Structure formats: C-alpha cells, structure tokens
Request: fold
Amino acid sequence: MNNERTYQVCKKLVLDTSYPSITFDSEGICSAYHDFYSNITPHWNPGPEGRRRLEQVVEIIIKEGKGKDFDCILGLSGGADSSYMLHVLVNEFGLRPLVFHVDAGWNTEVSVNNINGLIDKLNLDLFTEVINWDEMRDFQLAMFKSGVPHIDIPQDMAFIGVLYKYASKHNIKWILNGGNISTECVSPPLDYYYWGTDMVHVRDILRRFGTIPMPTYPFSSIFYHKIWLRYFRGIKVLKPLNYVPYNKAHAMSFLSSEYGFKPYPQKHFESRFTRFAEGFWVPQRFGFDIRRVQFSSLILTGQMSREEALLQLEIPALDSDIVEKEYGYIAAKLGISRDDLASYFNLPKKSYRDYKNISLIMDIGERILYLLSGTRRGGAF
Reply:
C-alpha cells in the first residue's frame, strides 16, 4: 500500500492515485473508466430487453418454487439497494422471498426503521439471525489488532454465512442479491477491501489475535458458496437490479414516500460499525476514501456529475463531532477504552499480504468464474 507516486486524479472520474492499481492514459483518463465501457456495460441491461430477461428468470423461479414456502431468498440490510429490490420483486414480479436480516450488533435506528417499514407494508415475515456478541466482539477486536484496513470482514462474513445457511436449510435454489452495476460498477481496491471469505486469512488473524473459541460463528469459505453450493447443490444467484432501471436517488425518494424509508448519507452507513470504518478509520488511517469509488460509479452511470463529486469529497464523510461521539461508542460497545482504540489506530499499517492468504488462488478463481458465469469481484455483476 505504498502510494509514493506523483499525485493524479482521473479527468473523467474522481479516482486518484490513492487507488493502488489505477493507471492513467496519455489524456489523464483512468483505467476504471475504460474498463467500464469495455468490460462492464456488456453485462448491464436495464432497458426493455433486460426486463424481458428478468421476467423469463422469474418464471423459472416461480415454477421451481411451487409447493414450497418460499421460492427465493434475500437479505435485507435496511439500505437502498436491498430495499428497492425487495419492493420490485414482490410488487412487480410476485415472488415469495424468505427475507432475512443479520443482527451483528451494529444496527442503526435508520436501518431498523427501513426494514420494518418494508416488512410491515409488504406483509412479509422477517427471519432475524442474531450473531453471538462475544464471538463478534472478539473477531472485530482481532481485526483491529492485526493492523489491516479490512476491519469490517466480521460483518461481511456473518451476512454471507447466514445467507447460505438459510438457503441450504430451506432448500431454496435462488438467491437474490442487491449488488448492481448502477451504483457499484467500480470495484473497491483489494488492498483496502480484501476478500471477506478467504478463510486461510481469517483463521490466521484469529489464531494470532483472537482470544476465544467461535463455535457458532457463521463462517463461510469462498469454495463453499462459490463452488460447492453453486455447482454441486445448484444454488443460483440473481442480481435483479441489473435488469431494471435503477437510479439510487430516485429509489430512495420512492421508498421514502411509499414505506417511510429514511435516507442515510453514504452507501453502507446503515451499519454503525461500517459507518465508522468507512467514514473515519480507513480514510484517516490508510488514506483511502471509499467515496471515490462510490462517486465514480455514479458518474459512470449518469447519476452524479464529476464536479458535484469533487465538491463532496472536500467535506469529510463524518464531521469531527460525529467522529468524537462514534469513537466513544465503538470503544464502549467493544468493551475497551478509548485509549485502547487509539492504540489500534496507531499500530503499524498492515495489509492482507502480512498474513497467510490465498489471494493468488482467489484471483485465478475470479478469472475462471468470470469466464464461466460473467461474475466479478465487487458484487456488481
């Protein structure tokens, strides 16, 4: 994560040299801009043809789900993507999803309000999995102590693990995922947002810094859900928002009027821990602001101007008063002092390369899966 090179910002997007693998052409346009038009737009079909394709898949889902309590499964976080997806699939397509939520201990009032608003009005049941707090706490402290930037892996792991647990338990063959090209076409850099399902990496960090056994934690290996479940159990993943028009601002406005949805200031801020990690910890400790990725995605898909993005980037994601409050809250929730949390902030900076990992295998696997099914790291498609 050594960024000692001449500073440069993309002339089309707001990605800069803080993004480790970025390159620029002779006109100052970054590689992510060219990648979008060369490799991503072929997978994006939000017009009439995309809807017809989605309707065809929905017919299959409904047919395969006959006689079952649910014909598909989706996780609801309280964020805009999963909320709008749920609305569309229930109201417009008549699907009967098993809707689950993972309570990892960091829900905000906003997320709870948003979840309850949709569940109540759509007259659905909500399955909630509460993660053992002692295990979650120890896992997150281990990530802090390791010095790596990807301290949010415990939550990501829990969401993925519970998803596949429910799908397998209820014999559901279709997983609906809110990942979408419209807001996520630029992938976060691996250096700061490492694979959450590299169990070799996770186990090494827990072996070094964990303090308790974790018998109930819903760990999930990349091999389990990407290979075993998909190719041996026949579980399929569908990302419906790539087949319908999806403008995030419009979606949030609609959800607000229809379901009492409360907007939040930044993607993923429906989790209090993620808000702290992405709004303060990673940008201040490692010098990388995830908003550059998020805003660049919106610029590419016509939802934000570059000028507006640059203006927003001049303002910290979290102001000093909120940071002060959250610092105390995070420390207290984890059962440590503010000084302990500050000591983790001042640790030597580490990356996934400083611990055991299978990044080479993950990279090869990603390339193979891209050829086989068109998927790519980052969740957009």
User: Anything to note?
Assistant: Strands lie at 72-75, 97-103, 126-130, 174-176, 236-238.
